[in-house]
Amino acid sequence: MKINSINLAALFTAVSLIFQNAFAAYVPTYKQVAMDVESTSESETYAWLEAWPEMHEWLGERTIKDLSACKYAILNRDWESTVGIPRNSIEDDKIGIFKPMFAEQGRVVAAHPDKLVYGLLAAGFVQKCYDGLPFFSAAHKVGKNNVSNMDVPQSNPGNPWFLLDTSRAIKPLIYQSRKKAEFTAQTNPDSEEVFKKKKFLFGVDTRDNVGFGLWQMAFGSKQALTDVKYAAARAAIGSFTNEEGTPLGMKGTLLVVGPSNEAAGRVICYSEHLANGASNPWKGTAELLVVPWLA
């Protein structure tokens, strides 16, 4: 292929189509567990996270929640993925060998929000949320009481699993997008990259980040996933109240596991009988979501 503007434009169109097809073929799942928030600045502050909406009898003035106590902010981060094609490969019409790479790049970029969201969920035992404590903690303050949304730590923890309430407009996690993924190229044959390294660059960049929503909508564990532990998680998440003692009405609707806990999760969520042969009272109480970013 002769290196000129017409052929390079055609090349960009071809590889962009490969990228876009692979990008569209991937079906992300992060929206099941995370609010999809459009960001308009460098960062966003979620001052409303502590202010649970509640109905009160209207006697005198309105009851107004103070939003100034919570200053939980999510700073957007820059991400990129770049593929370089040697000039010789273009001149020798060897673009076909790069097609799988562009297809994989499309899949990776499409999976980027999933990777961020579930990576943060897995880190929730150490990463802090709006109240200054780890998202999964035994010491969340509700009024004067300590409330736990996790199993007590053990000396030899296993792979994590999570029971979430995803039935509401507010979700346990936040995916914050400032700039959508954009496929671009540096195809100027006179560019410094081509002159010095004999490479044409094709890349994607995006700007986003993730954060925690409400810890009351999640229960995390690193203990073995059994029907007993699942029952305890459901009881815990269903017992959460606001500072006035009013039940929040949380319920575990989604069981999130990694591949190592898939078999146990399927038994709990879908089987008529438990592993010991007993009738399974938990069948149908939650959907199962298996994600590769959990062990």
Label the overall shape.
elongated
Report the oligomer.
single chain
The total count of strands amounts to 12
Strand order of the largest sheet: 1-8-9-4
Low-confidence stretches: 63-69
Assess the beta-strand content as a share of residues: 15-25%
Distance between the termini: 46 Å
List SSEs in N-to-C order: HEEEEHHEEEEHEEHEHE
Approximately how much helix is present in the residues?
Answer: 25-40%
Count the helices. How many? Answer: 6
What is the count of distinct domains? 1
Mean pLDDT: 90
Radius of gyration: 24 Å
Largest sheet, in brief, is: 4 strands, mixed
Structural class: alpha+beta
Write the layout of secondary structure elements.
Layout: H1 5-25, E1 34-38, E2 43-45, E3 73-75, E4 77-86, H2 87-91, H3 99-122, E5 140-142, E6 145-147, E7 161-164, E8 173-186, H4 192-197, E9 199-212, E10 218-221, H5 227-238, E11 254-257, H6 262-270, E12 287-290
Parallel strand pairs: 1-8, 11-12
Antiparallel strand pairs: 2-3, 4-9, 5-6, 7-10, 7-11, 8-9
Which short descriptors sum up this protein?
single chain, 295 residues, alpha+beta, four-stranded mixed beta sheet, elongated
Offer a concise description of the structure.
The protein has 295 residues and is an alpha+beta fold. It has six helices and twelve strands. Helix 1 packs across helix 3.
Characterize the structure shown.
- This protein is of the alpha+beta class and 295 residues long.
- It has helices at 5-25, 87-91, 99-122, 192-197, 227-238, 262-270, and strands at 34-38, 43-45, 73-75, 77-86, 140-142, 145-147, 161-164, 173-186, 199-212, 218-221, 254-257, 287-290.
- It has one domain (5-55, 66-290).
- It has six helices and twelve strands.
- The strands form four sheets. Strands 1-8-9-4 form a four-stranded mixed β-sheet. Strands 10-7-11-12 form a four-stranded mixed β-sheet, covered by helices on one side.
- 30% of the residues are buried.
